[in-house]
Design brief:
186 residues; alpha/beta; Arc Repressor Mutant, subunit A; 2 domains; two-stranded antiparallel sheet; 6 helices; 6 strands; elongated
Length: 186
């Protein structure tokens, strides 16, 4: 078995808390019980995880899944690999959004409203500031219902985070004034 992101999630969960059942591990790691079973078997075979007996009370014997020193080392290596990959993904997204915003600016559209999650709005604002773009985020909405009666003179384009432009234009809830001003962010 290749040490994957799911393997990392299992190792990380075992490192963070005491786990005594595969069901607990599945719940805490966000991985299905079947996948946890498969991953654990492999980790046990590789010597990255061990099962220890302990007594919860005098009448029962319990088990705990524990990382071995080899498992802690593997988790550390995986952590570095995944952090580097996530940073690269972040940089790629940042570059794509920057290119999109620059193309909007070059098209003479400098007053935008944004429809999408707050974290993406904040990201867009930081890119506009960092790149000194001549774009102003005039309004922000999380969904179409909040848009209401916008004055079409207050913005040049509505940037849409999620969905295809053609699908959105078919929705009855999109105000008429936005239909020719919608651009998908991606």
């Amino acid at each position: 078995m290749k040490l994957s992101e799911k393997t990392f999630q299992v190792l990380d969960t075992l490192d963070r808390q005491e786990i005594s059942t595969q069901r607990q591990l599945a719940d805490h790691s966000g991985i299905s019980l079947g996948q946890v079973n498969y991953i654990l078997k492999s980790l046990l075979e590789k010597g990255l995880v061990k099962i220890d007996n302990f007594r919860k009370n005098p009448n029962k014997i319990g088990y705990a899944y524990l990382l071995t020193p080899k498992g802690i080392e593997a988790k550390s290596r995986l952590s570095v690999r995944f952090v580097i990959r996530k940073i690269r993904e972040y940089d790629d997204i940042r570059e794509r959004l920057t290119e999109r915003l620059i193309s909007i600016e070059k098209g003479g559209l400098n007053r935008i409203i944004f429809l999408g999650p707050p974290v993406v709005k904040d990201f867009i604002n930081s890119l506009i500031k960092d790149k000194n773009l001549n774009i102003v985020l005039t309004r922000y909405y999380t969904n179409w219902k909040d848009v209401g009666n916008l004055d079409p003179e207050t913005f040049d384009v509505a940037l849409l985070f999620d969905g295809e432009q053609d699908d959105i234009l078919g929705l009855g809830e999109v105000p008429q004034i936005l239909k020719n001003k919608i651009l998908p962010l991606w």
